[in-house]
Design brief:
This protein has about 850 residues and is of the alpha+beta class. Strand 13 and strand 14 form a beta hairpin. Helix 26 packs antiparallel against helix 27. The longest helix has 30 residues. It is elongated and about 110 Å long. This is Valine--tRNA ligase, mitochondrial. It comes from Equus asinus asinus. It catalyses: tRNA(Val) + L-valine + ATP = L-valyl-tRNA(Val) + AMP + diphosphate. Catalyzes the attachment of valine to tRNA(Val) in a two-step reaction: valine is first activated by ATP to form Val-AMP and then transferred to the acceptor end of tRNA(Val).
Length: about 850
């Protein structure tokens, strides 16, 4: 089976339809159940807020959310599936309550990720590098790739049952979003909240661009480690601390020793710093040191940020290539020296002997030079964290880059008090420039005739007017050159809550659904996305974009490890939904031989027979059962398979209930006095509705899944159905049980629908309509059972009495198992080890009789 076709097979099975006139198939099949309902839901418009205003139970309230836009580059992973499962459950519950719901689908252009993918494809297929094409030619290739490959995300969202309003689908590079981005930049610049300068950024040599912190993987190294990196012909050593001596000027034989894991940055050192209270260096305060490579004089400065108990207590200061050093240098008025160029080679500031060398080649030459000059003081293993660019696998490094920065406070204090963890927001401003071709081109223009004069405008004509006013010269005489950079992807993503509703235009959607009712996302996006949405939302709309944030956990495997292809523990939603054979799972991906061997061993251990078909409903139910809050979510296939068995239990229960209806047409006989067991199951149903309502109101979905699992499995299937089966066989037209069964099926399926929409729809459609009740075309727009409407069924004392009976039955069953008392053994005949008094009294028969009476 081709992986790319799996989602399509789920939604395009030709044998499946929404025709429920045929008998319910004898066996539950996720593929059968989940094949046809989603296209029908979309065609009927059930997911549109306009439809919901027509519902008889409409509340007039609104509920709006936006999905964190997944990158258009690839497929949804299990973390996306968790987001969809939680959000869709909440959305469907609000819709069934009668609220006017808007849930907008969208995808992110993912500047760095998409450009990297297309560059790899161009090289693989045509042996063409990006810089061999013009910017326009390359962008045509990107749009072509997006049009061909970008639809996979939407297909997967449909397969997961996400009840999104597809007529409002957006893409962060579509005309409306692009206009919103330009407008936002112009307004922020006009308000003085965007500025252009040199600032420290994470730099990727492979991409030739600044990258966001989230694009940097911090890889811990225990000590000396050899790594093969893109563009380096030989392995590079990391995890080594080099000790270097800085001679004290005018004091022969006296020196200050510092340690560094990046000796290639030595040419950029502008000072050495020690703690002011470190007595080892008190006598050297205000003295100067000789640079070990150039011999230039450097100041020895004191700063309380230096940790005297780490290493020698002295640190080299390289403001151009270290965030901490940049802050220290700024405090002491030190000018930075940028010694590593954009392509990773050494700059002219390093001298002719290093200029043009790759920084890791220069590292070796610098080490040799230190030894020759007698200033090398040792080499030792040293644990460190290595920054790796997630998109290219190359090592990144901090460097000074010219670009546009945004003030993190955005001129308001409000956004800063919204997030409890404000360290990132208050730490440094946000560099929004990216040296890419794919993305929103920055609407800023350099006035060529003036020195470093930049103007901003929605169009070049508007920018020219600004330039003329600024310079006092006629606009026609000025030459404008547009900034070649694009904006950080997070800039457009931060506008998502209101740009998707039509901002900056005053649209009906914006007036009706903004601010959003809730933002639900992963905890890893709290600062990168949530914080930036808060800042831009407050500045551009004057309101918080949402008042409540729900953060879900990070998904890990059952051993608590982060999911990684190299570990072979990644759970792909497509594999879980439709199943996958082991060999097919091993062949998927582009791992190198070493990673493939590790992945193969792990997958053979975890999935010796591949992953069985579990279906969307089982996956959603399992993900929601872990809840949205708390620690990491440890997920295993066996857990999802257990939920699939739960689906099968519900299926078989409805087959029995529907058979009762078909044979007796007795669902709607007048309901006479209820037997205790009938009243008990209805009380359990009312309690379940109350627990589900509480779980949805508090957004603790694990409460909902637990309540539903307990009712369907332990109350209805294990007890009530077993109790009424013999009764219904003996009394074909007995009032009571058939009507109770219908209520359990109808209410139970509506309670289940937000979590298992496909199974609930398939089974609910086969129930006859309740006489006198307003018909609903779909369970997705049927009223969600409220606790108040079922309160008259709730009898806590009756449930307590039945709990005692069930405990007695369980004890009897345990005795029967212990003493091997079975129906095949004659009454009064005991198994081995049964005391003789028990034989005389016929405990086996009495136990069976008591259990039967308890059930009836």
């Amino acid at each position: 089976m081709q992986r790319g076709n799996k989602v399509r097979q789920l939604v395009e099975l030709s044998s499946a339809s929404t025709d429920v006139s045929q008998p319910l198939p004898p066996a539950y099949s996720p593929r059968y159940v989940e094949a046809a309902w989603y296209p029908w839901w979309v065609r009927e418009g059930f997911f549109k807020p306009e439809y919901q205003t027509q519902l008889p139970h409409a509340t007039g309230e609104t509920f709006s959310m936006c999905i964190p836009p997944p990158n258009v580059t690839g497929s949804l992973h299990i973390g996306h599936a968790l987001t969809v499962a939680i959000q869709d459950a909440l959305v469907r519950w609000h819709r069934m309550r009668g609220d006017q719901v808007l849930w907008v689908p969208g995808s992110d252009h993912a500047g760095i990720a998409t450009q990297a993918v297309v560059e790899k494809q161009l090289w693989k297929e045509r042996r063409v590098r990006r810089h061999e094409l013009s910017r326009e030619e390359f962008l045509r290739e990107v749009w072509k790739w997006k049009d061909e490959k970008g639809g996979e995300i939407c297909e997967q969202l449909r397969a997961l049952g996400a009840s999104l309003d597809w007529d409002r689908e957006c893409f962060t590079m579509d005309p409306g979003s692009s206009a919103a981005v330009t407008e936002a930049f112009v307004r922020l610049h006009k308000a003085g909240l965007l500025y252009r300068n040199r600032q420290l950024v994470n730099w990727s040599c492979a991409l030739r661009s600044a990258i966001s912190d989230i694009e940097v993987e911090s890889r811990p190294l225990p000590g000396r480690t050899e790594l093969r990196l893109p563009g380096c012909p030989t392995p590079v050593s990391f995890g080594l601390l080099v000790s270097v001596a800085f001679p004290v000027d005018g004091e022969p034989g006296e020196e200050v020793v510092v340690g560094t894991t990046r000796p290639e940055t030595l040419p950029g050192d502008v000072a050495v710093a020690v703690h002011p209270d470190d007595s080892r260096y008190t006598h050297l305060h205000r003295r100067q040191l000789r640079h070990p490579l150039t011999g230039q004089l450097l100041p020895l400065i004191t700063d309380s940020a230096v940790q005297p108990h780490v290493g020698t207590g002295a640190v080299k200061v390289t403001p151009a290539h270290s965030p901490a050093d940049a802050e220290l240098g700024a405090r002491h008025g030190l000018s930075p020296l940028s010694v590593i160029a954009e392509d990773g080679t050494m700059t002219s500031l390093c001298g002719d002997w290093l200029q043009g060398l790759h920084r890791f080649v220069a590292r070796g030459k610098i080490m040799s030079a230190l030894r020759e000059r007698g200033l090398f003081r040792g080499l030792q293993d040293h644990p460190m964290v290595l920054p790796i660019c997630r998109r290219t696998g190359s090592t990144g490094f901090p460097t000074l880059g010219k670009g546009w920065g945004a003030l993190v406070g955005m001129g308001r204090e409000d956004p800063l008090v919204v997030l409890r963890n404000r360290s990132w927001l208050l730490g440094r401003d946000w560099c929004v420039s990216r040296q890419l071709w794919w993305g929103h081109r920055i609407p800023a223009y350099l006035v060529v005739e003036e020195k470093d004069c930049w103007v901003v405008g929605r169009t070049e004509a508007e920018a020219r007017e600004v330039a003329a006013e600024l310079t006092g010269r006629p606009g026609a005489e000025l030459t404008l050159a547009r900034d070649p950079d694009v904006l950080d992807t997070w800039f457009s993503s931060a506008l998502f809550p209101f740009s998707t509703l039509g901002w900056p235009q005053e649209t009906q959607d914006l007036a009706r659904f903004y601010p959003l009712s809730l933002l639900e996302t992963g905890s890893d996006l709290l600062l990168f996305w949530v914080g930036r949405m808060v800042m831009l939302g407050m500045q551009l709309t004057g309101q918080l974009p949402f008042s409540k944030v729900l953060l879900h956990s990070m998904v890990r495997d059952r051993q608590g490890r982060k999911m990684s292809k190299s570990l072979g523990n990644v759970l792909d939603p497509r594999d879980i939904i439709s199943g996958v054979e082991l060999q097919e799972k091993l062949e998927d991906g582009n791992l190198d031989p070493a990673e493939l061997a590790i992945a193969a061993a792990a997958q053979r251990k975890d999935f010796p027979h591949g992953i069985p078909e579990c279906g969307t409903d089982a996956l959603r139910f399992t993900l929601c059962s872990h809840g949205a809050l708390g620690g990491d979510l440890h997920l295993s296939v066996s857990e999802i398979l257990s939920s699939r068995h739960f689906c099968n239990k519900i299926w078989n229960a409805l087959r029995f209930i529907l058979n009762v209806q078909e044979r007796r047409d007795a669902f709607f006989f007048p309901l006479g006095p209820l037997l205790p067991v009938d009243a008990w199951i209805l009380s359990c149903l009312a309690r379940t509705a109350r627990e589900c309502e509480r779980g949805f109101l508090t957004r603790e979905l694990s409460l909902v899944t637990h309540a539903l699992h307990h009712f369907w499995l332990h109350n209805l299937c294990d007890v009530y159905l077993e109790a009424v089966k013999p009764v219904l066989l003996r009394s074909p037209r007995l009032p009571g049980p058939p009507q109770v069964l219908f209520s359990c099926a109808d209410v139970g399926l509506r309670l289940l629908a937000p979590l298992m929409p496909f199974l609930a729809e398939e089974l609910w459609q086969r129930l006859p309509p309740r006489p006198g009740a307003p018909p609903a075309p779909s369970i997705s727009v049927a009223p969600y059972p409220s606790a108040r409407s079922l309160e008259h069924w709730h009898q806590p004392q009756l449930e307590q009495r039945f709990s005692r009976v069930q405990e007695a039955v369980q004890a009897l069953r345990a005795l029967r198992a212990t003493y091997q008392l079975t129906k095949a053994r004659p009454r009064g005949e005991a198994g081995p080890g049964l005391p003789s008094p028990c034989r005389k009294k016929g405990l086996a028969g009495r136990g069976e009789s008591l259990e039967g009476r308890a059930q009836s």
